[in-house]
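REVIEWER CHECKLIST
Item 1: Sequence provided? yes
Item 2: Single chain? yes
Item 3: Sequence as submitted:
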Amino acid sequence: MFAQTLVGVFALSTATAFIIPPAKATDPPPKPTVEQQLDELSAKMTGVNNNIAGVKESIKSINLRLDDIIRSMATTEQHDALKRQVEQLKLDVDNLRAQLNNQAVTTRSSPLGANMPGAMPGPMRLGPTGTLRVANRNFFDTEVFVNGAPYIVPAFATTDVTVPAGAFTYAVPSNMPGSRTRTMPAGQVYGITITP
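Item 4: Structure as written out by the authors:
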């Protein structure tokens, strides 16, 4: 019986644990007054107005920068004129290179020309000729002396120099000491290559 009483007490305590007193109903928050709503709306409008003012300032700054860029840009006519000037300068440079490749530099323009061994003052002799083909593989223009006359050979270019048939001398002071004498058969081509 004691066991039954103990079970009954246990059952009763368990049953009362499931009985929860009802929660107190909370009162709904008070509705804001019209004045509070107007104050809140006014604060939001002030923030929006400040944002709009900031956007207007940003747009004004961007417009000023665009105006500066537009003023600094060359017009199409100016661009075309500059383009024509650059093309003319390129043609002038090409013409100067062609003149350098086809004409001997005077001995007065180079301190080496007047004192080179085998130098022949005055114009070349007329008669049978051959061609000395000078290929420059250097990264810079190189001065070559043929029969004492200096020639400029541009970097990575080949220059043909007409020489009288028979013995001729050539020198490349930047690459070899002294000069070399070779024989040029009439109507033939003799080639030398200048390397770094």
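Item 5: Key structural point noted by reviewer: Residues 98-194 form a domain with the Immunoglobulin-like fold (CATH 2.60.40).
Item 6: Recommendation: ____
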